[in-house]
Amino acid sequence: MELYFVTGNKHKVQEIQKVLGKKIQLIQKKLEIKEPALNSIEKIAKIKAVQAFKKIGKPLITEDTGIYFNAFKNFPGTEPKREFEKLDFKGLLEKLKGKKRNAFFITAICFVDAKGKRKTFSGKLHGRITEKVFYEKKDVLPYEKIFIPKGKKRVLAFYSRKTKNKFSHRAKAARKLKKFLGSKSINYRI
């Protein structure tokens, strides 16, 4: 089965493809989509999916991920990339000086079938923000360099994709999608 993944982020494609396995082949598709400024990862993923389906009219997924520092309300929240571009590591870590460093990621994947029917799957990963940046030059998403998952001793950037896919927020959402697509009871035509 082929499924379009509307994103410009190769890391997300690689992570989700590993979870989905060989039976579901992701085809990365870059499209100009307006990302709404909302406080809900799930709603953003759905809106992106609706826009993408209007443009390509084929089964697809969209994904959105947010990271939330517990010390603040909705920060960086649904705007992790914009906040990182504004503050960089130095500004992000400075904001947490003297505050509790607990944080969590949420990923939402929205699937759209050939008829435009949607279903959303989410995954969450709790952890904490470090006091310094690790693996600064590694080609991974920025927050992975400062986020230690609960129960682990190292930042996400340390772990191989294979290991990370055992516990990450994105992998949790992707496993739910895989189960759904493999279910014999679904009425979706791919």
List the helices and strands and how they pair.
Layout (H helix, E strand, L loop, with lengths): L1 E5 L3 H11 L4 E5 L11 H16 L3 E10 L6 E2 L2 H16 L6 E11 L5 E12 L17 E3 L11 H4 L4 H14 L8
Helix pairs in contact: 1-5
Task: Explain the overall architecture.
It is a single chain. The protein has helices spanning 10-20, 41-56, 80-95, 161-164, 169-182, and strands spanning 2-6, 25-29, 60-69, 76-77, 102-112, 118-129, 147-149. It has 190 residues and is an alpha/beta fold. It has one domain: Maf protein, CATH 3.90.950. Strands 1, 2, 3, 4, 5, 6 and 7 form a 7-stranded mixed sheet that branches. Helix 1 packs across helix 5. The longest helix is centred in the first third of the chain and has 16 residues, at 41-56. The model is unreliable at 184-190 (pLDDT under 50).
Descriptors:
alpha/beta, seven-stranded mixed beta sheet, disordered C terminus
